[in-house]
Structure formats: structure tokens, C-alpha cells
């Protein structure tokens, strides 16, 4: 979680960690939105938007960068190498706690099973992880899921040995028999479940609403370039409409980007609930249930502090901006 990496690493992120493509035509202001995303079913629609020219149709120029390492995308936004990124509420709160000024303008999805704690044969419950070694990318949402699952089972992180690895490497280490379990998100869950006898002992479906995923902007960019922000939000919903009308073609695009087969990609459908416009409006509405983002933010912030993943609770004022979702034409 801790968002402070070496300055040298931040300088080379966009060339060393991702691949970038820009839309063909600039908007009238000449402003380009530097948008990052990484391997998650709720974010692959951005690739569809790119390939189908939907950014350009909405009059916005986007420099779309795919990150092989999710944590590198978080760092890129926090250090000013991106204007916007697709990331979880957990990780956004961690960045804000560290001093980053960020604004959430859109809910992409909720994880409803595609984040998993996967264990080898002979380990049937989370309680069975006591004394075992678990590979997980520290500070990411699957680390958070692991802590939630351990707490529910009456354990703590001190009851296991955490092997910190990037998610793709963690899944590979698990398959190679180097660890007893792994915390991973799709599509890396497919890799991990390739180990004979392996099974998910906990998933995000066990913690409804705990892992929402968002389009997050640098707060200053939102203030200075609201038209570009609106165009990106509009593009998202246009993309969902295109996917609904061209499902097989869309799956082919997203599966290719994820490095999995079309058949495997289809299995992720139930585990990632893409939010409609109406669900976005409801999520941004203040409330006291798991469906309300402000409630989730308070709950996650408390957990992050209690688990000593951050030093102090992040400020929530100005974190959620429903302006752009509200302006989308139904």
C-alpha cells in the first residue's frame, strides 16, 4: 500500500511498465487525458473504447496506458504520471491517506467473486491457513481481502506468513508449489486454479460491496478540465452499450488484452458486476448501507487504520464527485 516508491521508478513508469496508445483526433482544447488501467474484467472495456474509436466520438483525446503491474498504475497517478486511473476504493483511500489529491467520478464495477484467496489441496477453509505461507501483492485489494477473510475466521496476519509478490508472480509461485495459497484477481485466478486440487477458500462475494472499482482522477485535473472528464464518463457508458450490442466481439477484444481465451473470459462475468448508470447514481447517494460509497469509504478507512495499513484515516471531503455521472444522458 504505501504509495511512496523510488523517484527513479516513477520517472520510467510509463515507458517500462505499460503500453500506450492515443486516439486519432484531439479535442478542441488540445488537452490529452492520460488514462491508466490494468488487468481486471471491470477495466478491460477501456480497451474496447480505444479500439472502437469511442473516445474520439466523444471528442476527447486519450493516451491509454496498460500496466502489467497494478501497483505501478497507482503510483503513476499519485506521482502525476497519469491524469486518471482505474483503481479500487481501498487503494484510492490509501493514496489519499498518503497525501494524494484524488477524485472518484465513476463506479466501474463491484467485485462479486473475481478476487479470491486460492489454496492448494488439503486446505479447505481460511482457518486452515494458520501457519501457512500465502503469496499476495502487498497493499492491493487482495491483501485487503486476505485480511478481511482472516479476521472473519478469527485469525490475523500474524498467524500466516505473507510472501509479497506481484499478482502475476504470486499466481505462478502458487502453481509451482512455492506457497500454500495466493490472493489474486481475475484473470490471474485462472492461472492459480490451474493447479490440480486448488480451490477458492474466500472470495469477494463473501464481502458484498467491499471492493468497488472506480475511475479516479487527479483532483486538480477535474477542476481544470471538466469537459474532458465528462467526455471520459460519457465514453464509458457508450462503451457499455457497444459491448451489450456486440458481446462476442467485445469479449474477443477483452480476452485478448487479458491474455486468456474467450471461454475463460466468459467465466468472469458473474464475478464482476459492471455498474449501470442507475447503479452509479445510487452508489454516489450518501447513505448507511454497503450500496453507498460514503458508507463503504468510512468502513474501509477504519479497517485500514485498524490493520495498520495506513497511519491515519484519509480525509473523505471531496473524494466523491457525482457531477459527471448525473450529467450523463439516460
Automatic annotation (TrEMBL):
<dbReference type="Pfam" id="PF13379">
    <property type="entry name" value="NMT1_2"/>
</dbReference>
<feature type="signal peptide">
    <location>
        <begin position="1"/>
        <end position="22"/>
    </location>
</feature>
<dbReference type="InterPro" id="IPR010067">
    <property type="entry name" value="ABC_SsuA_sub-bd"/>
</dbReference>
<comment type="similarity">
    <text>Belongs to the bacterial solute-binding protein SsuA/TauA family.</text>
</comment>
<protein>
    <submittedName>
        <fullName>ABC transporter substrate-binding protein</fullName>
    </submittedName>
</protein>
<keyword id="KW-0732">Signal</keyword>
Amino acid at each position: 500500500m504505501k504509495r511512496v516508491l523510488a523517484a527513479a521508478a516513477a520517472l520510467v513508469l510509463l515507458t517500462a511498465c505499460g503500453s500506450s496508445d492515443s486516439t486519432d483526433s484531439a479535442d478542441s482544447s488540445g488537452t490529452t487525458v492520460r488514462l491508466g488501467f490494468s488487468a481486471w474484467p471491470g477495466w478491460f472495456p477501456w480497451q474496447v473504447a480505444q479500439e472502437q474509436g469511442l473516445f474520439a466520438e466523444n471528442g476527447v483525446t486519450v493516451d491509454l496506458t496498460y500496466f502489467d503491474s497494478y501497483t505501478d498504475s497507482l503510483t503513476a497517478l499519485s506521482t502525476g504520471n497519469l491524469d486518471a486511473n482505474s483503481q479500487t476504493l481501498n487503494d484510492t483511500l490509501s493514496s489519499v491517506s498518503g497525501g494524494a489529491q484524488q477524485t472518484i467520478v465513476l463506479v466501474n464495477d463491484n467485485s462479486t467473486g473475481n478476487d479470491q484467496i486460492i489454496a492448494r489441496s488439503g486446505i479447505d477453509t481460511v482457518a486452515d491457513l494458520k501457519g501457512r505461507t500465502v503469496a499476495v501483492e502487498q497493499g492491493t485489494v487482495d491483501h485487503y481481502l486476505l485480511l478481511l477473510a482472516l479476521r472473519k475466521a478469527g485469525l490475523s496476519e500474524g498467524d500466516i506468513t505473507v510472501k509479497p509478490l506481484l499478482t502475476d508472480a504470486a499466481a505462478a509461485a502458487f502453481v509451482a508449489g512455492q506457497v500454500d495459497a495466493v490472493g489474486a484477481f481475475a484473470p490471474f485466478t485462472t492461472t492459480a486454479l490451474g493447479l490440480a486440487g486448488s480451490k477458492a477458500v474466500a472470495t469477494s462475494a463473501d464481502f458484498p460491496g467491499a471492493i468497488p472499482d472506480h475511475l479516479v482522477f487527479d483532483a486538480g485535473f477535474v477542476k481544470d478540465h471538466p469537459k474532458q472528464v465528462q467526455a471520459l464518463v460519457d465514453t464509458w457508458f457508450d462503451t457499455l452499450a457497444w459491448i451489450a450490442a456486440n458481446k462476442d466481439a467485445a469479449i474477443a477484444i477483452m480476452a485478448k488484452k487479458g491474455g486468456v481465451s474467450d471461454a475463460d473470459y466468459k467465466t468472469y462475468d458473474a464475478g464482476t458486476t459492471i455498474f449501470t448508470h442507475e447503479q452509479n447514481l445510487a452508489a454516489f447517494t450518501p447513505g448507511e448501507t454497503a450500496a453507498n460509497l460514503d458508507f463503504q469509504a468510512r468502513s474501509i478507512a477504519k479497517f485500514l487504520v485498524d490493520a495498520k495499513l495506513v497511519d491515519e484515516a484519509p480525509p473523505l471531503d471531496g473524494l466523491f464527485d457525482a457531477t459527471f455521472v448525473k450529467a450523463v444522458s439516460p
